[in-house]
Design brief:
alpha/beta, 5-stranded parallel sheet, globular, 4 domains, Immunoglobulin-like, TIM Barrel
């Protein structure tokens, strides 16, 4: 039976039941029509399937799986083909575990380097993020396994993420925060999209018809289903009207009953419900075509992690100390040498099959190394004493390799970072060792940018971000020169938190998050404001050097398509790969724009002395901006300068091109520092009102602060945190961290203590 016939045969009660999950990890079934439950699991860089599927709030140990390279590092490869390889391998592990849909990739824009979940996201640039997300999705879905592109949309902080209101102008939404999703939807057709927790200009994403129907379905042609993030459902009836298909997690009988009642009372049309149910049925039927239970090759997948990670590491500094020489003796310092930081903290945390260590791999490779901890990861030892011992060892060796960076406690889903600093003990170790040895290599692990106050005191710095299971082999591959580093930064490393685009408007105690920087995100902001940075977007060194010798462009004005071609030559002593980055600037623009924007890239491998022409396609969107008055992307008529670059601030060659377009574009009435309200059609900003009353969307901290409400609802708070108290795993830390900001409605669903109807009745009693 096909999907349309199934929907016609369903009763109203059966249709309503499908709109809410069966449990924490399954979509609901329909036994009468032979529609089974289908299993979904985290995550964006590997399978996190719970061993006990119905464990409370998704807690509990997960099955062993490969921790692939998280997005913060894989995006630094600037090689979409590697993301397709990763997606393909993740799908094979999903098949082995009977998983129908993998909840990823995370594609949100890195608005601030302090966002606690940045390790799950690709970039501060929407073009790069969209390319990587699209390839990852293709890799997964070619195996008959679905994906869930997330978190849609404008979700760029963890603070109050379930109740915050992202106040962002439409041009910034279209050019920055929706663009990566648009590219992935149009190019790779994900099975599902996961809506975010937050409000967007006053409307929760789960209820946002403009977002889910007008933009996603009508404009972009998305025909899959939209699922909530876990606990993100605000109003089940308004959600169906908006195009929200499945509420997760389940069960939530109150909302099933609410759907039935709304249809009977004609507050919800049966046509709207049928559209939702049809998409759900089609997705379940699609999932049935995938074979389940086939084993995968663990060793082969470990080697895939090794390849992707080593191809993505970024060489930030090198004064002839790398690659390592086997003629030298080395002090290897820092606990990360034994226990590398391989992934982020929270719902994406993988129970790894096997994790390799850099120290062991250095020894296996035949290097003369001696280890000292230098600092402590668990707080059980005296750090000053550990540092002193490490410094003494460093003074006896020809060179030193220090492993440092951000700890698991520094960044996590559920909360944002407090500063850009590395842990004090890590910085102190580097500073003190540099005093006794001139030959220091620093290898850095972590999921987002940090400051490097010791940078001028060391000779070489290798950024490994979070490399996944094969951290040891991949790190030594690059340190030894077996692999020539070719990664480039997918985000800017600033000099201070005060320099960041959204400083003062990020992760505050306010529910309303004002995106006052508008389109000036990441390098767009730093370049426009002429701010110096620690390392620019797109930056990365190699053991060899490259010259850009020639550039040319071809372009069809009528079709608005063509390409630029750049002749690149390897002028150094090693074989290696270079990423050619294309930035576009409008000359004498009549509208407000960033100085330059990334519009294409291509990675090319060159042997010593070899030269190749690298071609990068260009099209209508290469030159477009979003015109709010016209309601579409538009091209401003005139001259454009196209740069072939090695980073956003290393512009090697340029060529100009005249493009036919709108000769009288309506100017954006705003510049940095102007009244933020000028960016909106209405005189008032779309702020979330503060009623002062306890509501379904009051946070648990607000509820507990109200004496009367606390008596009613403290059991929900207690039930929410109890399963995680005393546990040190990433998921437990995340849940405890975000407990205070959890809205009452979501906490009730996640714990099952009270139904939505019971909540409403108790709230009425408060008035």
């Amino acid at each position: 039976m096909d999907a349309e016939k199934m929907v016609k045969e369903m009763t109203l009660e059966e249709k309503a039941a499908l709109t809410v999950g069966a449990d924490f990890w399954h979509f609901e079934d329909n036994e009468r029509l032979s529609l089974p439950k289908i299993l979904v699991t985290d995550g964006p860089h590997g399978i996190r399937k719970q061993k006990i599927i119905d464990s409370p709030m998704g807690s509990g140990e997960s099955v062993e799986a490969t921790c692939f390279t998280p997005a913060c590092l894989s995006a630094s490869s600037w090689d979409p083909s590697l993301l397709e390889v990763e997606g393909d391998a993740i799908a094979k592990e999903a098949i082995s575990e009977g998983v129908s849909i993998v909840l990823g990739p995370g594609t949100n824009i890195k608005r601030s380097p302090l966002c606690g979940r940045n390790f799950e996201y690709f970039s501060e640039d929407p073009y790069l993020a969209g390319c990587m997300a699209s390839s990852w999705i293709k890799g997964v879905q070619k195996n008959g396994v679905g994906t869930s592109l997330k978190h849609f949309a404008a979700n760029s902080q963890e603070k109050k993420r379930l109740i915050s209101n992202s106040v962002v102008d439409e041009r910034a939404l279209r050019e920055i925060y929706l663009a990566a999703f648009e590219k992935a939807v149009r190019e790779s057709r994900p099975w599902t999209i996961m809506c975010s927790y937050n409000m967007i200009n006053g409307t929760y994403a789960s209820d946002n018809k403009w977002l889910l129907t007008e933009v996603l379905r009508k404009e972009w042609g998305f025909d899959g289903l939209v699922v909530t993030d876990w606990g993100a459902m605000n109003d089940r009836i308004e959600g169906i009207k908006a195009g929200l298909d499945i509420e997760m997690p389940g069960p939530n009988r109150s909302n099933v009953d609410a759907v039935i009642k709304a249809v009977k009372e004609k507050r919800l049309s049966i046509e709207d419900l049928d559209r939702v149910v049809l998409r759900i049925v089609k997705t379940i039927l699609k999932a049935l075509n995938c074979k389940k239970g086939e084993p995968y090759d663990k060793n082969a997948h470990h080697e895939i992690v090794r390849m992707i990670a080593s191809s993505s590491f970024i060489l930030l500094k090198n004064e002839l100390l790398l690659p390592l020489s086997k003629d030298k003796s080395y002090a290897v310092l820092g606990e990360f040498a034994k226990k590398p930081r391989i992934q982020g903290n929270g719902s994406s945390q993988i129970n790894s099959n096997y994790v390799s260590s850099p120290l062991e791999e250095l020894e296996n490779a035949g290097y003369d190394v001696e280890y000292a901890a230098g600092y402590c990861l668990d707080g059980a030892h005296n750090e000053e004493e550990l540092c002193s011992d490490a410094v003494a060892l460093a003074g006896k060796k020809d060179a030193v390799i220090i492993f440092a960076g951000l700890t698991l406690e520094s960044e996590s889903e559920g909360f944002d970072r407090a500063s850009l600093d590395m842990p004090l003990g890590h910085n102190r170790l580097i500073e003190e060792v540099a005093k006794v040895n001139d030959n220091v290599v620093v290898v850095l692990y972590g999921g987002s940018p940090f400051l490097m106050p010791w940078l001028d005191k060391v000779k070489s710095v290798l950024l490994a971000y979070l490399p996944g299971d094969a951290a040891g082999e991949a790190t030594v591959d690059v340190l030894s020169g077996r692999v020539n580093p070719s990664g480039k930064l997918a985000e800017t490393f600033p000099l201070s938190v005060e320099d960041t685009p959204c400083y003062g408007n990020f992760a505050t105690e306010e529910r309303n998050v004002l995106y006052k920087e508008s389109i000036l995100v990441g390098y767009r902001y730093y370049d426009y404001m002429q701010k110096p940075v620690l390392f620019p977007f797109g930056y990365g060194l190699s053991y060899t050097t490259f010259s850009y010798d020639e550039i040319k462009v071809s372009f069809n004005q009528e079709k608005k398509s063509g390409e630029i071609s750049v002749l690149v030559r390897n002028t150094g002593g090693y074989d290696g790969a270079e990423v050619v980055e294309l930035y576009v600037e409008k000359v004498d623009s009549r509208i407000f724009r960033p100085l330059r924007e990334l519009k294409g890239f291509k990675k090319v491998f060159l042997k010593r002395g070899e030269a190749k022409w690298v071609s990068i396609p260009i099209d209508e969107r290469t030159f477009s901006y979003y015109s709010v008055p016209l309601g579409k992307f538009d091209i401003e008529d005139g001259e454009y300068r196209l740069y072939a670059a090695s980073s956003s601030r290393d512009l090697r060659l340029s060529v100009t091109l005249c493009v036919d377009g709108n000769k009288n574009p309506e100017a954006m009435p705003w510049r940095p520092g102007d009244d933020f309200a000028l960016l909106f059609k209405h005189s008032k900003l779309p702020l979330s009102p503060e009623s002062g009353k306890i509501t379904l969307n009051s946070s648990l901290s607000e509820v507990l602060a109200d004496e009367k409400a606390s008596k009613y609802f403290k059991p929900i708070f207690d039930a929410f945190i109890t399963p995680f108290i005393g546990k040190t795993d990433g998921l437990s830390r995340m849940q405890l961290a975000m407990a205070a900001d959890m809205p009452l409605r979501a906490a009730a669903v996640m714990t099952g203590i009270l139904t939505q109807d019971e909540l409403r009745k108790k709230l009425e009693q408060l008035d």
